[in-house]
TrEMBL record:
<dbReference type="InterPro" id="IPR009001">
    <property type="entry name" value="Transl_elong_EF1A/Init_IF2_C"/>
</dbReference>
<dbReference type="InterPro" id="IPR027417">
    <property type="entry name" value="P-loop_NTPase"/>
</dbReference>
<comment type="similarity">
    <text>Belongs to the TRAFAC class translation factor GTPase superfamily. Classic translation factor GTPase family. EF-Tu/EF-1A subfamily.</text>
</comment>
<dbReference type="InterPro" id="IPR004160">
    <property type="entry name" value="Transl_elong_EFTu/EF1A_C"/>
</dbReference>
<keyword id="KW-0648">Protein biosynthesis</keyword>
<dbReference type="Pfam" id="PF00009">
    <property type="entry name" value="GTP_EFTU"/>
</dbReference>
<feature type="domain" description="Tr-type G">
    <location>
        <begin position="28"/>
        <end position="255"/>
    </location>
</feature>
<comment type="subunit">
    <text>Component of the Dom34-Hbs1 complex, also named Pelota-HBS1L complex, composed of dom34 and hbs1.</text>
</comment>
<keyword id="KW-0378">Hydrolase</keyword>
<keyword id="KW-0251">Elongation factor</keyword>
<keyword id="KW-0547">Nucleotide-binding</keyword>
<dbReference type="GO" id="GO:1990533">
    <property type="term" value="C:Dom34-Hbs1 complex"/>
</dbReference>
<dbReference type="Pfam" id="PF03143">
    <property type="entry name" value="GTP_EFTU_D3"/>
</dbReference>
<dbReference type="GO" id="GO:0005829">
    <property type="term" value="C:cytosol"/>
</dbReference>
<dbReference type="InterPro" id="IPR000795">
    <property type="entry name" value="T_Tr_GTP-bd_dom"/>
</dbReference>
<dbReference type="InterPro" id="IPR050100">
    <property type="entry name" value="TRAFAC_GTPase_members"/>
</dbReference>
<dbReference type="GO" id="GO:0003746">
    <property type="term" value="F:translation elongation factor activity"/>
</dbReference>
Length: 438
């Protein structure tokens, strides 16, 4: 008698044309963004306000947070805690996902990547920015705050997301209540920021400025009343978010999904992974390989936003339940590909990077998403013009902070990388540069 197999049979693929299936659904646009800005400029409060006014968070939750905040004499923090609250909620649920928040408007499904308020903000921000379609830069407009932010993280964050390939910015000029909704204050900040951002390589038409107040809510979801700011006729934050250009969904490209989380040992789903599909499509029954582990598996079931689905496309964050896999070698940060078109694993590359500190040939850690490998900058190929990308100077001896340069890098071990991927160079725990693989 044949031995009984305890393994569940591999699910048969329906062999769908996923791109066609997707088009049939007449899909809503979807977009993801990071929230950046100097400490205390109001990032968390603004996102809390947005989620509350869009009714993602209900009055009861906010009342509860208000009570807790009042109890420690910090009533204004209730809105800022909304993001943490939704995170915790999710952590208690079954479909634990990374620290993101979802919301929808009539036009768009949004993902807020990298909820602000993390202690270790820069590395998180880099990870978030490397997946973002655009960034919301929050600036405190009140007296002296904008100015001190400029010396602090306002510029640094803007440069950082630019170097990670983010091209669109929404500038939330916040705390306008404290600036008494003064038009000249808004204009002053807008002019200074525009000059800086254009010099940093953003195109003026890709930057939208919105005056608002996260704490009191004007111009976030609801327009500012005319008696407060008759001079402003532009969009609210939500309409600016809706107006952001649609994601270029790289659906036709080979599947690439960076593993964000691995869940082992469930009874129904012994091995599941989550992550965002950066490009390509997938469907139940697909044969996949995680690189560089080289671990193969079959997709048994797919979940998107807690719903079981037959397929998923670039831009979606998915949970994949896998079979036929030996999970030992799977790692956070591995890239899931179709078995038929795996990503290459390389040990050398050229990259276009923005320097945060002086760059010289020498040792660096190369980070891609959550993974990193030791390596070295072999050579400084050229410095580049920030806006045109043309060569400014060949073989510089050193690259200054703020400059963009092409560098050649060698790694001690292979990493799965390909053109267009975003990498970060760190040395002694500090980010010294970030950019794109060429
Ligand atoms: N008056 C006024 N105060 C605000 C506004 N938005 C935020 N604040 C206050 O500014 C302080 C900082 O707000 P947070 O939302 O914690 O700032 P953050 O940028 O998220 O701070 P970190 O996460 O620590 O970087 C809090 O006391 C808020 O209540 C606003 O629109 N008006």
């Amino acid at each position: 008698m044949a031995a009984l197999s305890v393994a569940e049979p591999t699910k048969k693929s329906k062999n769908l044309n996923v791109v066609e299936e997707y088009e049939k659904t007449n899909p809503k646009k979807s977009a993801s963004f990071v929230v950046i800005g100097h400490v205390d400029h109001g990032k968390s409060t603004l996102m809390g306000r947005l989620l509350f006014d869009l009714k993602v968070v209900d009055q009861r939750t906010l009342d509860k947070l208000r009570k807790e905040a009042d109890a420690i004499g910090k009533s204004s923090f209730a809105l800022a805690w909304v993001m943490d609250e939704t995170k915790e909620e999710r952590a208690r649920g079954v479909t634990v996902d990374f620290a993101t928040n979802y919301f929808e408007t009539d036009a768009t499904k949004f993902t807020i990547l990298d909820a602000p308020g993390h202690r270790d903000f820069i590395p998180n921000m880099i990870a978030g920015a490397s997946q973002a379609d655009f960034a919301v830069l929050v600036i405190d407009s009140s007296t002296n705050s904008f100015e001190s932010g400029l010396k602090g993280q306002t510029k640094e964050h803007a440069l950082l997301v630019r170097s990670m390939g983010v091209q669109q910015l929404i500038i939330a000029i916040n705390k306008m209540d404290l600036a008494e909704w003064a038009e000249d204050r808004f204009t002053e900040i807008q002019q200074q920021m525009s000059a800086f951002l254009v010099a940093a390589g953003f195109q003026a038409q890709n930057i939208t400025f919105v005056p608002l107040a996260g704490l009191t809510g004007e111009n976030v979801v609801n327009p500012v009343p005319k008696d407060k700011a008759a001079w402003y006729t532009g969009p609210t934050l939500v309409s600016a978010l809706d107006g952001a250009r649609a994601t270029t969904r790289a659906m036709e490209k080979p599947l690439r999904l960076s593993i964000n989380d691995i869940f082992r040992g469930g009874v129904i789903n012994p091995l599941s992974i989550s992550g965002r599909i950066d490009q390509g499509t997938l469907q139940a029954g697909d044969a996949i390989v995680a690189q560089p582990a080289g671990e193969t598996a079959s997709i048994k079931r797919i979940e998107v936003a807690s719903q079981e689905v037959d397929w998923a496309v670039a831009g979606q964050i998915v949970i994949l339940h896998l079979t036929d896999i030996d999970p030992i070698h799977l790692r956070h940060g591995d890239i899931v590909c179709h078995l038929s078109s795996p990503i290459t694993t390389i040990t050398e590359f050229n990259a276009k990077v923005l320097a945060f500190e002086h760059l010289l040939p020498g040792f660096v850690d190369v980070h891609r998403g959550p993974l990193h490998v030791s390596g070295k900058i072999k050579g400084l190929v050229a410095t580049l013009d920030k806006s045109s990308g043309e060569i400014a100077k060949k073989k510089p001896r050193i690259v200054q902070p703020g400059q963009v340069a092409r560098v050649s890098v060698e790694m001690e071990k292979g990493m799965s990388l390909e053109e267009g991927m975003r990498i970060v160079l760190r040395s002694e725990g500090r980010t010294i540069g970030a950019g794109l693989l060429e």
